Amino acid sequence: GENVEQHPSTLSVQEGDSAVIKCTYSDSASNYFPWYKQELGKRPQLIIDIRSNVGEKKDQRIAVTLNKTAKHFSLHITETQPEDSAVYFCAASINSGYSTLTFGKGTMLLVSP
Amino acid sequence: GAVVSQHPSRVICKSGTSVKIECRSLDFQATTMFWYRQFPKQSLMLMATSNEGSKATYEQGVEKDKFLINHASLTLSTLTVTSAHPEDSSFYICSAPPGQMIGYTFGSGTRLTVV
User: pLDDT tens digits for A70-94?
Assistant: First the structure.
């Protein structure tokens, strides 16, 4: 089955800095890669996703890049703010056929004022 | 947008009792729902895939007789934790794909504490 590795497990940055979280996946058939933000005790919230037919996607301060050949994808947050502090999860799935998401272990991002 | 409603949000039960958690898709039909468990400071781990009108598919290591899943309609899936023990205390969360081109949406989660 799919295996998703995520690094780093914790990331501390100063407000205004950029943050990068990286994930690798094992199943070359995976074609859907969402990123979720989870605050303590709450549900994961989708912040951005990318499909295998594109290499990069951007939404304001958040961007995701995908390298299918290397089977890795990354989340980039620019101009970080304290409210960006949360746990971020990457995931991968074969989106056709409603297959399940396989999650990375998560990255705790702390943005200090 | 696609919404999944999950209840209860928190439950405390005594060891040996059973607890039922419900997930409803409010504005779309969910032929499939996924049930995850999340222990503190850990990732979401898939427990089972709930399929409307058929038996659920359980992940390796998940006891199907302990975690009963019923997906009786296109909008409702339930997870029943039977004979709960303290080690079952966790955050349980469901997820459903509203459509092939739309991202998965999560329920609000259920914090189960077994005392």
Answer: 999 999 999 999 999 999 999 998 8
